[in-house]
Amino acid sequence: MKTQPIIAVGIMADAEINFSLFGNYNINNREIPVGDYTACITDENIALFKEDHLIALAPEIIITAGNNSGSFQLKDVTIGINFHWEQKEDQLFKGSLKLIQEERKIRCINLVPLEEYLQSVISSEMSATSSPDLLKAHAVISRSWLLAQIEKSKKIISERTDYRTTIKTEDELIRWYDREDHDTFDVCADDHCQRYQGITKIISGKVFKAVEDTSGMVLVYDGNICDARFSKCCGGITENFENVWEPVPNRCLTKVVDSEFGDTTCVNLRLEDEAIEWIKNSPHAFCNTSDKKILSQVLPEFDKKTTNFYRWKVEYSQKELSELIKKRSGIDFGEIIKMEAVERGHSGRLIKLKITGTKKTLTFGKELEIRKWLSESHLYSSAFIVDYKDIAEGIPQKFILTGAGWGHGVGLCQIGAAVMGEKGYSYKQILKHYFKDAELKKYY
What we know:
Structural class: alpha+beta
Radius of gyration: 23 Å
Number of strands: 26
């Protein structure tokens, strides 16, 4: 049986870092006092000051918590990076603080036991009002995902794999986002990985118990830890892993109809006619709910403004859309003539989208790249269809995007799982629904 690992969580990076220490901390076994600190880069080193006194000067600095009793507060941490609710807040953390240099900035990394990390993640991702089984299910998939990422990183390093995330030709740009972003720590603290805010938010007794009751439990398939993923709302059917991230099938992450009726209600959303019909309607699914009590379990305050997520609409004028795409992609398409689905996944999410403009035509993907190009932050999902209005000399003056779901749609659907929890499904049943071929196993 393995032991619980210490996780390195990348919190923030800035030219100057301001933080406060509370409790017992030391650097290289030399105790340092509580109070306010500033860190900046001087020549090739990080300089750590308390008021005007130089405390440490080194290429990297580890401020170790003594007896796991200390805590530290980082100032002006950005959360919701590139999302519509991006904001700064001061955040409090337990564990140790590691400072490293990263592109002339200082990167703050929290070193914390995995189970303590999970307590914060579940508290950040879910409300304390969530059903106990929803919290337990989320604890298992969050633990599984993180351990799978760590194992994957080790494999890439040991095999010296040429890990590609972009395929580019004259007529096509396909890009996906995953582990290539983090090579100096295990996981980041924002939505790119899992929301982690230390002990800034109150960790409820229910969350603590859910993590404790599932301690060390992971999802396993064929002897390997499942790369368990989750998103806010699948829109009725979950997506295959390879249609969103690297083009390698993952048996843990395949299409699931988000309903108690299973495949009997399924359509083939890879076919355009069926995708259009599906998206324009509102079929039954666990995640098709407007119950505020259930939604409050999953949506934090800054997400509660979003009410239309199972089915949604976004409208752009020609000027708005052409300028947005140019800004977000760096490519001048001219006026936008058409946006065509080239390839869809099982959930109706676009894998490839072709944009035809008066100056340029290009097919691009995958899911997140499409969402980035078509929104100032991130479009709710890539499962959408396009209607053209006010066409003048072959050029639409208005575009209406009608879409389904919120997020990439792979793995557990948080809103669907919340509904299942309220209906009395156990956490094992919830996990079996979204990860049908996986098994629960004690990892440590």
